[in-house]
Amino acid sequence: MSSLQPTTWARRTREGRQRIFAVTKFARLKWSVFEPLSTVQVLDLDDHDEPRWTPLFDTRDGEERPVHPLGNELATNTPLSRMRVVLRAVESWEFWQDAETEPPAPLLIENQNNEPITIAQFITHFHSYALGLRDALYEALGIYNNEECSYFFCYGPSAENVENDDALFEICVKPNSELTEFWDRSVERFRQLQNRQQQSEKQQEVQEGLSSL
After folding, report:
1. pLDDT digits (tens, 9 = 90+) for 31-79
2. Among 5, 121, 147, 211, which one is most buried in terms of CB atoms within 10 A?
3. What 3-state class would DSSP assign to 87?
4. Are strands 107-110 and 82-87 parallel, antiparallel or unpaired?
5. What gap in Å lies between CA 86 and CA 102, rounded to an integer?
6. Quick check: is 153 in a domain?
């Protein structure tokens, strides 16, 4: 059975349309949450419709600047300047209940100027937050070989709850060894999405040409 069952890429994409979090955009990322930001890659297609993975950040001068346009896009489908974020596996770890203690506080990303949070900003803040929870995540997931883990999905509030400042965005990560199929499917879905977009643009050009006659 596929490691991605029962939640399929297509199902997550459909759900993403109803969610605030920009699931479809984040599905283009290879983002190992504990690795340096310079390792985050974005899926593009070359002139032959083949996948090309390019860096999201430029960190050569010691600063994390997004160099891919995706980094400047919004992290949410509805612009938000405040987000509360947790690592899903750590937040739901039964250890906290057994120990009668609270899980780690959520990460708070908040722009005082009400500017919407971008993908690059979200990744930068979450990276620092996740590093402090690495040991807890490994124990919660039963990982004992220090395997790297990457972003897989985000469970978050729906569009109807956009005004709820207390709503949590729960980031789900998986060991990289379990994500090969996910990344392969992401390539195929992105290729299909790009093809549909190109067809739509061509149809629009034809309609505009006919309307000008």
Report:
1. 999 999 999 999 998 888 889 999 999 877 777 788 899 999 999 999 9
2. 121
3. strand
4. antiparallel
5. 13
6. yes
